[in-house]
Fold Metapyrocatechase.
Amino acid sequence: MGILRLSHVDITVPDMDLAKAYYTGVMGLDITETTDDRAFFKCWDEEDHHSLAVRYDPRVGIDRFAFKVETEDDLADLEKAVESYGFHVHRVSRGEEVGQGESIRFETPSGHEMELVHEVDKVGGRMSKLNPEIPIDLQGIAPPRMDHMLINAEEVGESAKFFMDVLGFRMTEQLVGGDGHQIGVWMERSHSPHDIAIVNGPNGALHHFAFWLDDWDHVRRSADILAYNAIQIDVGPTRHGVTRGNTIYFFDPMGTRNEVFTGGYRPDPDFPTITWTEDNIGQAVFYYEGEVNERFVTVHT
Amino acid sequence: MGILRLSHVDITVPDMDLAKAYYTGVMGLDITETTDDRAFFKCWDEEDHHSLAVRYDPRVGIDRFAFKVETEDDLADLEKAVESYGFHVHRVSRGEEVGQGESIRFETPSGHEMELVHEVDKVGGRMSKLNPEIPIDLQGIAPPRMDHMLINAEEVGESAKFFMDVLGFRMTEQLVGGDGHQIGVWMERSHSPHDIAIVNGPNGALHHFAFWLDDWDHVRRSADILAYNAIQIDVGPTRHGVTRGNTIYFFDPMGTRNEVFTGGYRPDPDFPTITWTEDNIGQAVFYYEGEVNERFVTVHT
Amino acid sequence: MGILRLSHVDITVPDMDLAKAYYTGVMGLDITETTDDRAFFKCWDEEDHHSLAVRYDPRVGIDRFAFKVETEDDLADLEKAVESYGFHVHRVSRGEEVGQGESIRFETPSGHEMELVHEVDKVGGRMSKLNPEIPIDLQGIAPPRMDHMLINAEEVGESAKFFMDVLGFRMTEQLVGGDGHQIGVWMERSHSPHDIAIVNGPNGALHHFAFWLDDWDHVRRSADILAYNAIQIDVGPTRHGVTRGNTIYFFDPMGTRNEVFTGGYRPDPDFPTITWTEDNIGQAVFYYEGEVNERFVTVHT
Amino acid sequence: MGILRLSHVDITVPDMDLAKAYYTGVMGLDITETTDDRAFFKCWDEEDHHSLAVRYDPRVGIDRFAFKVETEDDLADLEKAVESYGFHVHRVSRGEEVGQGESIRFETPSGHEMELVHEVDKVGGRMSKLNPEIPIDLQGIAPPRMDHMLINAEEVGESAKFFMDVLGFRMTEQLVGGDGHQIGVWMERSHSPHDIAIVNGPNGALHHFAFWLDDWDHVRRSADILAYNAIQIDVGPTRHGVTRGNTIYFFDPMGTRNEVFTGGYRPDPDFPTITWTEDNIGQAVFYYEGEVNERFVTVHT
């Protein structure tokens, strides 16, 4: 089956205590492990070791992002595919990286370090696997799981081609300029509107990563929790034209943009790509506002 | 019992056809009557003749607003009270005004024409009074009823005093400056967070009137309908600190600000007034954003 | 103004520890005071001392219910009105009853002990009266406030007449038999669909009291919490035809029926009464099911 | 990739006019084609020719159900797999069946006729593929798409084995008896909690098929529409323990059980199966009620 879904995002923060306080107390994630300079977090309904890793660094930024593949063979196949495309692949052996086994790393055309991983330690979710009960005492925003991420690229089309031709992603939506070149692409492997999006911007930059919420009411509760904790909201609650999902963008206290997201359709490989033209960029990004604010376009980490 | 609730708002528009198209097709109101230069609208769950009257005028503005009183005696008592306060009262006889009977009109300290009315023609709502069914085919936003309005006043405290001492309104919330003077007041008669609010601004101006929605999901549907119809959203979906209700502000195509509103508490006369200090004005007005945008403060009709 | 709203319900339970555990841990109320044989509870958004009083007694039942009046004069006026109607009134002096001042008690035509109270100790709600924030850490169902109650009467029409003619209630809805006699009546003082309902059944019995929820999503969360705590659900989540509100009925572990309720219209004194005919009783009570289950009709306390 | 999702369910009805009236007017589906004795329906967000086919027959029942495969090769591979398992496969050529191309049919161990189809005519959904707008004028329940179905089998374990070993389904949940045998299994191909479920009952029977709703509010609106149209609700609105989704079961006017469903988790192939034990069957099926009603267990078509 190849790539299943976004596995984890590894970011850097200048204040580990603040990061831990925010991602547990406000976002409602669980810490599954800490090391000297790192902390690992997961959502309550996730089974795997972590979906977010935070490392201390004076600079706010992104180390890498990882997608999970179904089998050991998928890992080998994708390794060959990336190398055939002309990119160097670095093997990470079991034991080298916290919470996971054998994996591969390489640089994408947009200059991001990307990881593919097969084995991830199973730590289990909050619901039992035997006669489970719906959890009623979740604290903070408490998204059930990580959903997707958006990275920037100077050449969106080149990056999209790599993700589709080499890694097997399928394009659900695209935003195209007057001359037909791609300004943004939304691609999936998990039968959701997007697992990764690539939008025009500086190579190597992270625009945001997003947590899944179950519904519009959870979006409001998230906004209540953000406001209570004086977290700066970037945009929302609102709706995207792209994906037709509902959303809030906001910044963690160190400066990385987070999103909470819900809704959208459920695409299979036979889903025809949706195209947005540049003159509709406002509605494509923020369907209610009909325009994109400056901060949303210019702030990356 | 005196004043019951906001009865109707009378605005002026430069394009009657556009007004009719918007208030029926987008807002989902019913037209109950039209005359040469006026159109009368009501919400689907309202029984009275109209809650919005629109008159042709080259200028966008407000003619007056009306509150409904319970009895004929209430009308007489309030007439005396207003006159005792030193204001001239104009009697409108049955037959003089469309859709209503005997009423009184006078100018408020803030220079608005206000009306009190007892008799209003009953045209009935969409639900039967005998074994009613929940309506399932409402079109447009279709709020069940008008909820409240916000007017501007140069001297908020003076206006608040008039509404409370003479007309019997109760203050649920106030926004006060550093020296203790009132920048905004929210007052009610209907056991809801507010029937009328007065905020610092030019005398005689209308800031907005608001329709009630039943819940947060109806707020999202309203935003979907507004976006579909390319209606300019001013702010929202968001939450107010004041009233703790959820809201969207937007402009009708002629330029009058509308609101859809839901939520809040249910205050009785023993409800202790909530005070907001000026340094919290952002959270008071827009709880999620934590700041008030320029347009919201400066645009009135 | 007279009667404002349902103030508190006083019930008896055979297990005080269980009652405290349930009404705090599951229902999410706050205990404001305990005495040797009683415990007093309030909802998070209520300002008054209590809306539920629980007394130890081997028998599950109801001691009395109390409505709050606006002024001392209202208390005196209603005292006279009840006495004029031929009923004996018992004065309760300040200091005699926990958490409240001067009040009156009398027996209704249906054999219930009813109380009217003016002074109630203000203990305050969870939200500040100065720059309040939306609470985000409520536990259990946590309704913002008590809403209404339903009592039984052998002669519904006689009881309705007493509540309307003597106490000033207004009838929003009624269920009538083929010969026109009233099987059920819903009456209000607080501009909500009902503060008290009276339905045919044994004199002196309590059918249920109900807590207010803010929306349909809170109804689902309540059901999740009830199921998690193995609380027996009687009916719901569903909708009433009467009031058009959404609801769940369930039993506290001692056997008193509780309800959580939301929605409905906002009636003023000019609201025309809605009539349901007996052949539509199913839809009137449970709009989705279209029928009333045996337990709902026969179990009272 | 093999099987993608449930493609369509083919049922029989004794009244075609009533079926058309219900599936368009109440359920809100679109008719895409009619023949002498059949009608084909799709949901508004589906691109394919139909997800429900209705054929006239004096008896209410099921003709077959079809799953869609990704490629022509998948069809050939699965054909071989089914034949290797010892089952006869019938090839349906392009042109033989309405709205679809080459497909295969065979009988499952539970005696159901099952179809696998690759080519289905694309008729397109309601949203444009170019700068799409959120539809705001959907009528009836209007689910965006078909979701899953539940069939009965005398030997659940044998059927589950066939679906998993031969067709590649993954088991998300199972209900097991005291001796460890499977009473029910829930299986998926589309990364949703279930595409098909098999529960103990008579071979060849259809228990229900289910339409997807986007959220809990759409569940309530569905109930409003069902009640308005006097459609018999079987159970709900409620929640399942299995899948943790929200649901209503009801019968179309001819007698086939329908479901509307929302929620649940998003499982990948690494999702560990959840097990329910028979003593928790009540909570597994109806999480709020904690018990399964007789009709739900005994009525099939």
